[in-house]
Amino acid sequence: MPRLPWRVAKLVEIRQETATARTLVFEIPGWPGHLAGQHVDVRLTAPDGYSTERSYSVAAPEQGDRVELTVELVPDGEVSPYLLEILEVGDEVEIRGPVGGWFVWRPDHTTPVLLVAGGSGVVPLMAMIRARRAAGSSAPFRLIYSVREPDQRFYLDELANPDPGLDIAYLFTRKAPDGWARPPGRITQADLTGASTDIDSYVCGPTGFVEAAADHLIALGHAPGRIRTERFGPTGG
Description:
Elements: E1 6-18, E2 21-27, E3 39-45, E4 51-57, E5 66-72, H1 80-85, E6 92-99, E7 113-118, H2 122-135, E8 141-147, H3 156-159, E9 166-172, E10 200-206, H4 207-219, E11 227-232
Parallel strand pairs: 7-8, 7-10, 8-9, 10-11
Antiparallel strand pairs: 1-2, 1-6, 2-5, 3-4, 3-6
């Protein structure tokens, strides 16, 4: 199989998601399209020829030549500080993709879906939610979204008015809003109960979170082959 080519991507829009995360919208002439759940590689090259790259999940379904990435700042990182603090509308980077074919949701799927996100792991799952909306799909979706504190939630305004058939539950591990029924803590088996086991599950987040959530689902009777996982760990940003 031929290697995917690097393409010039121009930044055309920036949206602030949290104090440390932004959505970057790029225009990429000749973009071949992508599926919700796929990711891309972003490459930066310095004037002296040094280059470095990182992988980022796509945050929205196919929109012609447009590709949206939501990037969270990694302290002392190599790529995310440049993307979030230096890159401006009109600037260019190189992007290669799309990559991945297992952790994807296709609009023709009608099976109920459970999405389980830890932190910035919500990004590819948000692409699935947006793809569902764009397709007018009636497949039932449930999102369980775990973050440390309330102000770390991505896409808060958009998720405040969920689409019909989309159920959303937030879990907080360090600090919960005043009056929140569930005390702060890591994801538990009880957080994942209440749904039929005849569903497709997508779990994305840090490695420890993904392993715990997948183990809980299996313990609840979910078939391992229907639990799709995507995990990330320290990469240097």
